[in-house]
Specification:
- The protein is mostly beta strands.
- The chain has one domain: Maltoporin, Chain A.
- The chain contains four helices and 40 strands.
- The protein has a 22-stranded antiparallel β-barrel. A five-stranded mixed β-sheet has the order 3-9-10-7-8. The chain has a three-stranded antiparallel β-sheet with strand order 4-5-6, with no helix packed on it.
- The two termini are 48 Å apart.
- It is found in: Cell outer membrane.
- Keywords: Cell outer membrane, Ion transport, Iron, Iron transport, Membrane, Receptor, Signal, TonB box, Transmembrane, Transmembrane beta strand, Transport.
Length: 736
């Protein structure tokens, strides 16, 4: 397996990741009309005023995504509470990346979508188009923190469902533990990607894109009401086709994506939306560069002769909502996902003494993952005296089956004098026996949002049962492991002034760990808890919102090497993440937006040890060391400016952003540091309606990423990853 595939596991959580792998191994032209309304709390305390989206889509815990969207700002998201609760009332830090922001930045991956979000680290593994991989508040979300339409997106080993950003209405980042509503997860939080839904207003969009590295892509997004349905049915179909090379020799980044959706709304109280998807990806099998003596080189580790990561995935599901009365709502969300991978690669293992030849190995894996998720919710509104309650109760279920086969072999040496990539035939090694995994998870949860005068108390509690089995082909019997856990959240918010809300909360999380210690006892789940306090401000009568949050997270029962048996592990490690975040998101005028984000993070081991690199018979205590690869301070800013109609430059939008990360340590021993990195992005767009109204809907747009072509890298757990060079994508867009 290439070093770049050992990617998603820093040394501090390497064993945990292996365990979790085994375990879970608006565009404006597309919106319907908007109307002005006042958002208030039930007690009558006014929060703020502003536009709210009224497009007929489900906007509650049914997974319909945020509402109150203007530019880059959103006032409501169902992710944090599974209800239509204003973000300002949520006692945790939440950021919504809206469709307009995704459009302006022409985001190509979910990882890129988080590039300007407080608390997120999205460049940990450099350029790697194979996975959506990122950290929030120092914790990995790759396997246990990605959700789609409110349902957990299960991944295992190298099989992770990919999310096409063009198919999203928004991405919501809930920072901090979320197990009290969503079940097993990461202490860092979750990212919930909301799929585009049908609208009851006709619309359409086509795009043609081209860029460096022979990138060519076509996008389309069409929909509206079904003719003859009397406004009860609507459809939407979204798709892309991309052919692209990359800066890696012989490596491609091709994608085919089609996503049909259909909504049936027989009455104002009932909505049923079907969501489908088919996607194919062809990607480089190995995006890594050879590492030598803990440093990255410019020697590409893969080879065009064998670098195929092929993935096919399909999804079908629905979101159902029925209102029995204004105070009683039932929802059911369900989805089936199937993902199949075929993964072949070459990697450089070492160089000869003369540094003229590189010794190489090969790998070949085939994996299949099938998953079913179901969430039932009932929401009720009632009063007990002066206290107004929003009650939510639910039962959810998740199941997956996963199987994998792998084989490893040797490849001809690479001539370092001629760098004869792709000029020698390389065959994939034969596959070994198949390994099987399956998991069932059942969760029961209850939440009360109680409002008394200016106080809002949010209480959530959940109990989970997780049943896991593992089986190897040709080996009799199975290895079952069962876990159960109770998690929750308690938060208090106070409406200090219109739009100004201080809050404090406590939340817990858990994730099972598959395996056994030296005494053959099953590992107990890793658990986490967080204390968070902050202030949210939504300036009245504007679309400007700001958040400041401080947090302290401790994750316990992290796997570590057993000091009494260096060949085994014990669940006794601990990690602590402390810091604060500041974020501002503003829409000053149509097409003029700004995001600012700053994060300070102190991420350290409380209890951990690692084998001595110079003596494999002893351990080094690294308690107190910083975890590697995660920067202590990050700052990002992105803004756009649309010249007003009276300007000589009417129709022109200019924008750009900067992403700054301070240094971090490159390994768990903290013996060397990653450099600080500053990257710049740019946007130039023009709407041709400014020339003549008959050109309404035509737009040209150019996006540049890392426009100064900064050569940068990041090292984690002693292995280093190279970032992407300057990239430019031009788009011709027509919307109607």
């Amino acid at each position: 397996m290439p070093a770049s595939t050992r990617h998603h596991a820093p040394a501090h959580l390497a064993a945990l990741l292996v365990a979790s792998t085994a375990l879970t191994s608006p565009a404006l032209a597309q919106q319907a009309s908007t109307s002005l309304e006042t958002i208030t709390v039930e007690s009558g305390a006014k929060l703020t005023e502003g536009p709210a989206l009224g497009n007929g889509a489900v906007t509650s815990g049914g997974g319909g995504g945020p509402s109150g969207v203007v530019g880059y700002t959103a006032q409501i998201s169902p992710t944090a509470t599974k209800t239509n609760t204003p973000l300002i009332e949520t006692p945790q830090s939440v950021t919504v990346v809206t469709r307009e922001q995704l459009n302006d930045r022409n985001v190509q991956t979910v990882t890129e979508a988080l590039g300007y979000v407080a608390g997120a680290s999205s460049n940990v593994f450099g350029f790697d188009p194979r996975f959506d991989s990122f950290y929030v508040r120092g914790f990995d979300l790759t396997y246990n923190g990605i959700f789609r339409d409110g349902l957990r997106q299960i991944g295992s080993s190298l099989t992770l469902p990919r999310i096409e950003p063009y198919g999203l209405e928004a991405a919501t980042i809930l920072r901090g533990p979320a197990s009290g509503l969503f079940g097993l997860g990461s202490p860092g939080g979750i990212v919930d990607a909301t799929t585009k839904r049908p609208l009851f207003t006709p619309f359409g969009e086509v795009q043609f894109q081209g860029g460096n590295y022979n990138r060519f892509q076509g996008n389309f997004d069409l929909g509206g009401p079904v003719e003859g349905s009397d406004g009860t049915m609507a459809y939407r179909i979204t798709g892309i086709r991309r052919q692209a090379d990359t800066f890696l020799p012989g490596a491609i980044d091709d994608r085919t994506y089609i996503a049909p959706a259909f909504t049936w709304k027989p009455s104002a109280d009932t909505t049923l939306t079907f969501l489908g998807e088919y996607q194919e990806n062809k990607l480089p099998g190995n995006p890594a560069f050879f590492n030598e003596n803990g440093r990255i080189t410019r020697l590409y580790s893969g080879d065009p002769a064998l670098t195929d990561f092929k993935q096919r995935q399909g999804r079908i599901g629905y979101a159902f909502e029925h209102r029995f009365s204004p105070d009683l709502v039932f929802r059911q969300n369900a989805r089936y996902y199937g993902v199949a991978n075929s993964y072949a690669y070459v990697q450089i293992n070492s160089l000869n003494d003369a540094r003229t030849l590189a010794n190489r190995g090969t790998g070949f894996l085939k994996e299949q993952l099938n998953q079913v998720t179901l969430d039932n919710q009932i929401e009720a509104h009632l009063a007990t005296g002066p206290v107004q309650h929003t009650l939510l109760a639910g039962v959810d279920y998740a199941h997956y089956d996963f199987n994998t086969r792998s084989g490893f072999g040797v490849a001809p040496d690479l001539d370092l004098l001629t760098l004869n990539y792709g000029r020698q035939p390389i065959t994939a090694p034969p596959l070994g026996p198949r390994n099987f995994q399956s998991q069932d998870q059942v969760g029961v949860y209850l939440q009360d949002q109680a409002k008394l005068d200016r106080f809002i108390l949010t209480l959530s509690g959940r109990h989970d049962w997780v049943f896991q089995t593992n089986r190897a082909e040709g080996t009799p019997g199975t290895q079952p492991q069962d876990d159960r856990a109770f998690t929750g959240r308690a938060g208090l918010s106070y409406l200090l002034a219109p739009g100004l809300v201080p809050y404090a909360s406590y939340a817990t999380t858990f994730a099972p760990q598959i395996g056994f210690d030296a005494a053959k006892r099953a590992f107990k789940p890793t658990t986490g808890d967080q204390i968070e306090a902050g202030v949210k401000y939504l300036i009245p009568n504007t679309n400007i919102q700001a958040n400041v949050a401080g947090f302290d997270i401790v994750q316990s029962s992290v796997l570590r090497t057993d000091p009494n048996n260096l060949t085994a592990q014990i669940a006794s490690g601990a990690v602590r993440s402390r810091g604060f975040e500041m974020e501002l998101i503003a829409n000053f005028a149509p097409g003029t937006n700004l995001t600012l984000a700053y994060t300070h993070l102190d991420l350290r081991y409380l209890r951990q040890s690692t084998p001595d690199p110079n003596d494999s018979t002893r351990l080094i205590d690294i308690s107190g060391n910083a975890l590697s690869g995660i920067p202590g301070d990050t700052f990002s800013a992105f803004g756009t400016y649309l010249f007003p109609p009276a300007s000589p430059l009417a129709g022109l939008t200019i924008g750009g952003g900067t992403r700054f990360t301070t240094h971090s340590f490159g390994n768990e021993l903290n013996t060397f540091r990653n450099p600080t990195v500053t990257l710049f992005d740019a946007l130039v767009a023009y709407d041709f309606a400014a020339i003549d109204p008959k050109y309404k809907g035509f737009r040209a747009q150019i996006n540049g990423y890392n426009v100064l072509d900064r050569n940068y890298y990041n090292c984690q757990a002693g292995y280093c990853y190279r970032g992407a060079p300057a990239t430019v994508i031009g788009s011709l867009i027509y919307r109607w």
